[in-house]
From TrEMBL:
InterPro entries per record: Acyl_CoA_acyltransferase (IPR016181), GNAT_dom (IPR000182), N-acetyltransferase (IPR051531)
Coiled-coil segments: none
PANTHER family to which the protein is assigned, alphabetical: GNAT FAMILY, PUTATIVE (AFU_ORTHOLOGUE AFUA_3G00765)-RELATED-RELATED (PTHR43792), N-ACETYLTRANSFERASE DOMAIN-CONTAINING PROTEIN (PTHR43792:SF1)
UniProt name for this protein: RimJ/RimL family protein N-acetyltransferase
GO MF annotation: an example: acyltransferase activity, transferring groups other than amino-acyl groups
Location of the N-acetyltransferase domain: 9-171
Organism lineage string: Bacteria, Bacillati, Bacillota, Bacilli, Bacillales
Domain of life: Bacteria
Organism in which the protein naturally occurs: Croceifilum oryzae
């Protein structure tokens, strides 16, 4: 089901048919370095990850969840982007991840700008945050381009590492 549409991209709900792509994405070295190892090693693991993650969030929280990002020109899945509600954060946060061959082409910004507009205009959010590791300079730069600003370093439960919290607040 298509949720958002940009000049070059379609953002839609994930399905278990996306398992092969998700398996590749969550095992990408950048994902492992900046997001973490989810232990997804097989197509079956990826299907379960989709069912227990995005699909559950779609059902619980109207308008929230990581959407699959596809290129319009060839329907190639290139990444994920969306708004989620983590138990460990007070606010809704935006997240994104793209396969290496699709980075540096403006796709992440295009998808994330569309998601931010959706959060502000459709969902009426007055605050959107993002979290990332301090050394993830590319993500921080993209988040700042979207209008989020450094707010503080935080620690999530069961994680000793301090991570960056950026935020956008409606004026």
């Amino acid at each position: 089901m298509k949720i958002l549409d940009t000049e070059r991209l379609i953002l839609r709900f994930q399905t278990t048919e996306d398992a092969e792509f998700i398996l590749e994405l969550v095992n990408d070295p950048s994902w492992l370095k900046f997001i973490g190892d989810r232990g997804v090693r097989t197509i079956e693991d990826a299907k379960n990850d989709i069912l227990n993650g995005p699909i559950q969030m779609y059902k619980k929280k109207l308008g929230l969840g990581f959407l699959l990002v596809e290129r319009k020109e060839d329907q190639a899945p290139i990444g994920i982007c969306g708004l989620i509600k983590r138990e460990s954060l007070e606010d809704i946060d935006i997240g994104f991840a793209f396969l290496p061959q699709y980075r540096g082409k403006g796709y992440a910004y295009e998808a994330a700008a569309s998601v931010m507009a959706y959060g502000k205009d459709t969902l009426g959010l007055s605050r959107i945050v993002a979290i990332t590791r301090q050394e993830n300079h590319h993500s921080i730069k993209l988040l700042e381009k979207l209008g989020l600003q450094f707010e503080q370093l935080i620690q999530l439960p069961n994680n000793p590492e301090e991570i960056v919290l950026l935020a956008w607040n409606r004026q």
